Please model this.
Amino acid sequence: MEATTEADKLDNGAEKAAGKPKEGAGKIAGDKSLETEGKTDQAKASLKQAGEHVKDVFKK
Model:
């Protein structure tokens, strides 16, 4: 199960990293929809990361 948790953490980090360019591109292009999508991706990844941290705490 630990491998899945590590994979989840990597996926969450990648999702968060993917949101930054979307947000930036949206700002540059004046595309509020793309900017919001990037911010949403980052927020979802942050929530998932928080969930992973909670799992880690209870494993110990």
About this structure: The CA atoms of residues 6 and 52 lie 9 Å apart. The radius of gyration is 14 Å.
